[in-house]
């Protein structure tokens, strides 16, 4: 089992940046695909970005492409989401997720609020 602890949420003005971190437990971190999802008020949870176990392949949703960058450090068991050029519509609860085979683990989620 993998436990995920997130940090780096908060309040930022439009155009600003935030870096979110996700710390994972366990010794098999590099075997998991890591990703970020978000859920805005009144909306369904949506995919944000993902990165392969080796870190060699990353994918992101069109809504954040070019602004958000996902990365990972397999030595430190960490995943990161660098969010630049933030917009008010990026306001949501952001979740870190780890996936391998049929297993999916979620972080506790933290609020990101972008003021206009």
Summarize the structure in words:
0% of the residues lie in helices and 53% in strands. The protein has 116 residues and is mainly β. Strands 2, 4, 5, 6, 9, 10 and 11 form a seven-stranded mixed sheet that branches. It has a four-stranded antiparallel sheet with strand order 1-3-8-7, with no helix packed on it. A hairpin with a 6-residue loop joins strand 4 and strand 5 (46-51). The relative contact order is 0.32. The model has no long low-confidence stretch (mean pLDDT 96).
Keywords:
116 residues; mainly beta; 7-stranded mixed beta sheet
- Uncertain residue ranges: none
| Beta content | over 45%
Largest beta sheet, briefly? 7 strands, mixed
Instruction: Return the average pLDDT rounded to an integer.
Output: 96
Overall radius of gyration: 13 Å
The helix/strand order is: EEEEEEEEEEE
Number of strands: 11
Range of helix content = under 10%
Oligomeric state of shown chains: single chain
Question: Nutshell version of this structure?
Answer:
With 116 residues, the protein is mainly beta.
Task: Give the arrangement of secondary structure elements.
Layout: E1 4-7, E2 10-13, E3 18-24, E4 33-39, E5 46-51, E6 58-60, E7 68-73, E8 78-83, E9 92-100, E10 103-106, E11 110-115
